[in-house]
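Take a look at my tokenised protein here and describe the backbone shape.
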Amino acid sequence: MNASTDTLLLPGPAGVLQALRDSAAAGTPARGTAVICHPHPLFGGTMDNKVVQTMARAFVQAGWTAVRFNFRGVAGSAGSYDEGRGEVDDLRAVVEHSCAAGTPLALAGFSFGSFVVSQALAWAAQRNPLHKIVFVGTAASRFAVAPIDSALHERTLIVHGEQDDTVPLSSVMDWARPQLLPVTVVPAGGHFFHGQLPLLKSLVLRHLMA
């Protein structure tokens, strides 16, 4: 299934936010809108990150419209890095301008992006039916990733590499354990899943189609 990609310039709290919207082939009914957040802006994270693109492809293949965007201060997005606070506001703005209130929404994040998504879940769940949540390389050792409400656990996929040397698997398990939240571990996987992106895509796609 081939996707079409549109460039978007969305109004954000610190100025314009640069975004890309990946859509399924013409005539394919969309299941909803998925908004995907990229890794840390100060370490090269952008919406063109390969893990982010992999998640977007999985969402599109599963029938979702996938919106990925650059946080404030990244590439064509206005503003400057705000240690996660302003980035949560950026995510909210993208959701508001790309997904109508009351319509199906999915949220996904890679690394720093998973932290940002965690801070917006409660707000998003009040605004939209939150159908799917995907965290990859959850930045639990570096940021205070918020717990996920138990009512959302069955809709949530947590994927982590066994040999992630950026965010140790143990820190993700320490975050997930009190929540009794399952974690899918990719054997020998690193933070960026080099050589394992097809496997990552299949795991995400399986979750989305379940």
